[in-house]
Specification:
Shape: globular
Helix content: 55-70%
Number of helices: 13
Mean pLDDT: 75
Radius of gyration: 21 Å
CATH topology of the largest domain: AhpD-like
Distance between the termini: 21 Å
CATH architecture of the largest domain: Up-down Bundle
Oligomer: single chain
Strand content: under 5%
Order of helices and strands: HHHHHHHHHHHHH
CATH class of the largest domain: Mainly Alpha
Number of domains: 2
Low-confidence stretches: 1-71
Number of strands: 0
Length: 296
């Protein structure tokens, strides 16, 4: 039996009309003034851990159905109210959805964040470290809490992207395969965009999904080989001997080492993202919406 913990509610003047489970605080000004540090999803307190985990990863309550609210707005509501509007009576659920949709986008951008360390700005850093945020994505804003570690992270990442001779499309397919297997929203969404910039087509992305599921695809042999190598390193910890021999023959020693380092590095990246709970930036959410990760 699912156990529901009653959420914190607000005075009637700030709540969604109707009262009861899941109302929380509905007034935008009141919500904006509340701290969300340490808040947890109402669903995390349910007995069904699978559903709770799916809600956390996908940012969409499985009870509510897809397309009713954006992932970020749903997550924000859950975090701010410690309750799930999908568990409300139907009439109140409709009122809650209308309220969530009405709140301005700027409010959600500031309040849906889940990261376990602060996102720093250049002004928070010593002058000699401010260059670390030339590309101010949220992963880097979290990593610069340790500037030396962030610089080392940048060094290998920049080599993989700009210094390696490995084909750019194949490199991005390998990274996407890691992100898909790890169910990493951040990694997947960022490299869907980057992949499209570096020669990956939308058909390639769908083919990667199908190839992972064992379905036939029109991918070329080198792409299939790279995906297989990425799957083996991600799931088994190493590339199988036969796969390595094929990759070595296809790419040569230098590029097979670069392929191995690329896959292994992004296996590490997805674990950093998951542990620090780095949020997907609003600019990248459309890529996650277009190619959603599977429910876990």
């Amino acid at each position: 039996m699912v156990r529901i913990v009653r959420p914190i509610t607000a005075p009637a003047s700030h709540g969604v009309p109707g009262g009861g489970m899941g109302t929380g605080i509905g007034d935008p000004a009141a919500l904006r003034d509340r701290t969300i540090t340490g808040y947890s999803f109402g669903c995390r307190r349910l007995a069904n851990k699978t559903i709770a985990r799916r809600c956390e990863i996908k940012g969409m309550c499985p009870y509510a159905g897809a397309g009713l609210l954006s992932a970020q707005r749903w997550v924000a509501w859950l975090r701010l109210n410690r309750s799930c509007p999908a568990l409300d009576p139907p009439a109140q659920r409709r009122q809650t959805r209308r309220l969530i949709r009405a709140l301005p986008g700027a409010f959600w951008e500031g309040n849906h964040r889940m990261a376990r360390v602060p996102y720093l700005e250049p002004a928070d850093l010593a002058p000699e470290d401010q260059d670390l945020l030339k590309r101010p994505i949220w992963l880097f804003k979290a990593l610069v809490n340790s500037p030396k570690a962030a610089r080392a992270f940048h060094g290998l990442g920049n080599y993989i992207r700009y210094g390696s001779k490995l084909d750019m499309r194949l490199r991005e397919l390998a990274i996407l395969q890691v992100g898909w297997l790890a169910r990493s929203p951040y990694e997947w969404s960022h490299h869907v965009k980057l992949g499209l910039d570096f020669g990956v087509s939308e058909a390639d992305i769908q083919a990667l999904i199908d190839d992972t599921a064992g379905k036939p695809t029109a991918l070329d042999d080198k792409a299939k080989l790279v995906l297989q190598a990425a799957r083996e390193i991600t799931t088994d910890g190493e590339m199988a001997a036969g796969t390595f021999a094929q990759a070595q023959a296809a790419f040569g020693n230098e590029q097979v080492v670069d392929l191995t380092i690329t896959i292994a590095f992004y296996c590490a990246v997805v674990r950093v993202l998951a542990t620090l709970k780095i949020d997907v930036e609003p600019d990248y959410q459309p890529y996650l919406d277009k190619f959603p990760l599977p429910a876990t």
